[in-house]
Design goal:
With 285 residues, this protein is α/β, with parallel strands linked by helices. The chain has helices spanning 6-10, 23-35, 51-63, 69-75, 79-83, 103-112, 129-148, 191-207, 212-229, 235-250, and strands at 14-18, 41-46, 86-90, 115-118, 155-159, 256-259. Strand 4 (115-118), helix 7 (129-148) and strand 5 form a beta-alpha-beta unit. It starts with 5 loop residues before the first helix and ends in a 26-residue tail after the last strand.
Amino acid sequence: MEFGSINKFLDGKTFLVTGATGFIAKIFVEKLLRVQPNLKKLYLLVRAKNSESAAGRVKSGIIRKELFDRLRGAWGKDFDSLVSKVIAVAGDSSCANLGVDDPTLKEQMWKEIDVVVSVAATTKFYDRYDVAFNTNTLGALHILDFAKKCENLQLLLHVSTAYVSGEKAGIIPEKTFQMGETLNGTSKLDIDTEKRLINETLEDLITRQVPQDSIKKIMRELGDQRAKQYGWPNVYVFTKSMGEMLVGQWKGNLPVVVLRPTIVTSTLKEPIPGWIEGIRFQQTW
């Protein structure tokens, strides 16, 4: 597939962006609207109880941010018309069909979407294993499965992280993971086994009525232990690596690009210099 001009490619396209309230996704959405206002639609997947709640999250958590002030100033009274292209979708990438319950909406999305941008992730280095696995590993597979149902899909952009390569020194070539590949090469990784381990551990803890605080601690420690067993420094990059493996294994003929950004801090100059959200710093490993 040849893109030619990026702006030309974007013209008239319909996008689905998962993890839409995250830092990277907000910047991506603003950039898309700014450089190519002739986009057809932007479906934004957000965790919410219903469509009304999803729309509220998109307005308050994305559109009303100062990140969009440049667009607001440029479009003036027509700004609302521009952002009317943005459609909030209540769902969850850790669920089958992205948790989209409305069958009419699902069919509409499958018919209209040209590009899926998979940004949804939990980026905590010491998260619970079940949470990180469901979001970063199984979530990647759910997004891929949803993309396969899109009749006119031209691209799945899967956002990963450069740190799937672990703590290696020197020049690290960009190559895809093979299913079951590990960083230390000591044992073969089996994603189904990891899923079973998570489920069995949780079931045992709940059966024994272990307090929630203790369950949280145990699941965090399990994720850290499993990551290190296979050569990754933390559960975040471990589960993102497994997500890449699933996408690579099951993508079939789907056009897929895997993007591996490094440390994400503030904007450099667009749309405003130094825009940042929340507390971000270069966390030690």
